[in-house]
Write a structure and sequence with these properties.
alpha/beta; Trna Endonuclease, Chain: A, domain 1; seven-stranded mixed β-sheet; globular
């Protein structure tokens, strides 16, 4: 989960090389999730929640799911500064879940919190720091 080490091992010597790589979105997802895990482990006031990801046989994915008190909160992580509600379409796969689905959203590079639909918002990635 060390994205800096992974970039070094790939031979990428600059941030521009990483930003332009075809796998840069994967690096971003790993970075965001690793920061959330570090926060969970290092903050004594952190809620006791579990984190998961979702992928089904039809290859529908949800990058990050928080579970707290039997409620799941879905999130997508995207390398974009133009969020739109189509980026969270896979949240519909959770409608048949046995657990309650709470509000979720999209973590991206748009600088403000904006609604995507009635239950989900777009958040700047900086909210995890």
């Amino acid at each position: 989960m060390d994205t800096g080490l992974c970039a070094y091992l790939c031979g990428w010597s600059s941030k521009e090389t990483l930003e332009n790589a075809s796998t840069s979105g994967h690096f971003l997802e790993t970075y965001v999730i690793s920061e959330i895990i570090k926060n969970m482990r290092n903050c004594e006031r952190t809620l006791n929640y579990n984190i998961f990801y979702y992928r089904d046989r039809d290859k529908k994915e949800i990058d990050l799911i928080f579970e707290l008190d039997n409620i799941i909160y879905p999130f997508e992580i995207k390398k974009t500064s133009s969020p739109n509600k189509s980026m969270i379409n896979n949240f519909q796969t959770l409608e048949s879940s046995v657990k309650n689905v709470g509000p979720g959203g999209l973590l991206c590079f748009y600088p403000d919190i904006i609604p995507l639909n009635e239950n989900n918002k777009s958040f700047p990635i900086s909210v995890i720091f």
